[in-house]
Amino acid sequence: MRTPFTELFGIDVPLVQGGMQWVGRAEMTAAVANAGALGFLTALTQPSPAALAAEIERTRGLTDRAFGVNLTILPTINPPPYDEYCRVIVDSGVRIVETAGNLPAHIVEMLSPHGVKIIHKCTSVRHAMKAESLGVAAISIDGFECAGHPGEDDIGGLVLIPRTVESVSIPVIASGGIADARGLVAALALGADGVNMGTRFMCTQESPIHPDIKDAIVNADERATELIFRQLNNTARVASNDVSREVVRRLNDGAVFEDIRELVAGARGRRVYENGDPDLGIWTVGTSQGLIHDVPTVAELVERIVLEATDLIANRLAPLVPVPNGQFA
């Protein structure tokens, strides 16, 4: 399946495994690349720029296909050394970067002169247009259905995807609520050149999270998420569990961040993925979990989506279009 996005980034199919904290590691990323899609290591999963350099080399030992590095830039009390991570990306010869959150101009200026193509992941048309003006190569537009940070506008993909496509001149991939061939075909119909999937790739054999968490996603439905941090203007969609519901309760009662800091600590979320207890802390998942019913290998998932998308287009959509004699195909 060829689109302007696949041609620009040198991949076979218009599927992207975006960066996910604690998930975007070498085995996951390499499996996606080997399947012909685009995978991303998550820079901040690594404890230091030097560790990221080692993870890049580890990935290269598992695939000879294109892959990238995600760099998520969000407000934090102790900001990571973003510039050092950028230098590692350049020095390691990685030529594809997914940025998310804020996109300072100097990050683009550090990467672009070295031939790095940037895909900026954002949640609004205005931010997509700003990113294009800074010189990014493509946009990943995140609808309200997504895991992680859906922004504060609450616009779903059916509106946000075509609005973004008509507002920028660079390739757009759709993100949020997509887990199968139906989502891919819908996104293509809305004008996107591919799709980004996070939650769906979490539920694969190569995903480095505990099998019990994969099972929890398979057994959950689309309602089993919570929106936290709304009152702090930093909304995040996470799994509904004892901790996230307590966070929502406290914030609704007027709590400030200091009152919930211990509950939302990243170390607790990491233990969820490592230990398999879904109630240990906050962990990210999207509404697309309602569409996930198994845990295939990455290769099986990618092949399934491409074959089913081809079938949908040929046997579901094409017959709806009249042929020249006025009959339908």
What does this 3D model show about the protein?
The chain is α/β, with parallel strands linked by helices. It has 14 helices and 10 strands. The protein has 2 domains: 4-208 and 296-320, TIM Barrel (Alpha-Beta Barrel); 211-275, no CATH class. The protein has helices at 4-9, 26-34, 49-60, 82-91, 105-111, 125-134, 157-165, 181-189, 199-202, 211-219, 242-252, 257-260, 266-275, 298-317, and strands at residues 15-17, 38-42, 68-73, 96-101, 117-122, 138-142, 172-175, 195-197, 225-228, 236-239. The longest helix has 20 residues, at 298-317. The two termini are 22 Å apart.
Calculate the mean pLDDT score and round it.
96
**Low-confidence runs:** none
What is the CATH architecture descriptor of the largest domain? Alpha-Beta Barrel
CATH topology of the largest domain: TIM Barrel
**What is the highest CATH level, the class of the largest domain?**
Alpha Beta
What is the element string, with H for helices and E for strands?
HEHEHEHEHEHEHEHEHHEEHHHH
Radius of gyration: 19 Å
Number of strands: 10
How many helix segments?
Answer: 14
Determine the fraction of residues in helical runs and give it as a percent range: 25-40%
Tell me the span between the first and last alpha carbons: 22 Å
